[in-house]
Write a structure and sequence with these properties.
single chain, two-stranded antiparallel ribbon, eight-stranded antiparallel β-sheet, about 200 residues, 10 strands, globular
């Protein structure tokens, strides 16, 4: 069977086909293919203390909510700079308390601090305890692709990697994103820390 000749196509079908091909090309250029990777397993040596702003969101709304909560957090910091900021700079976004039935969770945008004497009005405090994490580098092909790249990575982790890894979620928190100077470069990268603990061998039987 010979390939269809686009010159003999209905003009509307030809235009639709061209748009689809253009969309695929743009997706590959701006988003790229997803390549599964193995994480580095690390254990924190000390707690991570944060001051930030948290909201309750969902799998559906997180991509629009994250910009809103980050913007609100930045406005608060302009009016009242955070005390005891840890150097070098690091911003941390936490996902926790995931409800699989409603697909909702608590999302916090925060800055790492040396200590927490008090919590500024309108903000929240959180401490990530000493525990074990699987660390995945997230490297979008472009700045436009942050949300999609992170979504694909989390989907791979929670539906593909974690069930087969010999680890499970400890339930303290789900994961957090570490943003530092690497996320500001020409080839941005953030570290996604997924909380894990070894599975009880008896639970796999």
């Amino acid at each position: 069977m010979s390939a269809p000749n686009i010159r003999n196509m209905n003009p509307f079908i030809a235009i639709a086909a061209a748009i689809i091909l253009l969309g695929i090309a743009l997706y590959l250029i701006l988003i790229g293919r997803f390549n599964p990777i193995e994480p580095q397993i690390v254990t924190l040596t000390e707690p991570i203390r944060l001051l930030g702003l948290e909201i309750r969101t969902s799998d559906k709304d997180i991509y629009k909510d994250v910009g809103r909560v980050a913007s609100s957090f930045n406005e608060i910091k302009k009016k009242s700079p955070l005390p005891y900021l840890k150097q070098p700079w690091a911003s941390i976004n936490i996902s926790r308390d995931y409800d699989p039935e409603s697909k909702t969770f608590t999302y916090m945008v925060g800055d790492q601090v040396e200590k927490i004497d008090s919590v500024p009005e309108g903000l929240n405090a959180f401490e990530i305890p000493v525990m074990t994490f699987a660390v995945f580098p997230v490297r979008p092909k472009s700045r436009f692709a942050w949300g999609i790249t992170m979504g694909r990575m989390k989907r791979y982790i929670y539906t593909g990697w974690l069930p087969k890894s010999g680890y499970e979620s400890p339930g303290v928190l789900d994961d957090f994103e570490l943003h530092d100077d690497r996320s500001l470069g020409r080839h941005p990268e953030i570290q996604l820390y997924v909380a894990v603990q070894r599975k009880d061998p008896g639970s796999e039987s």
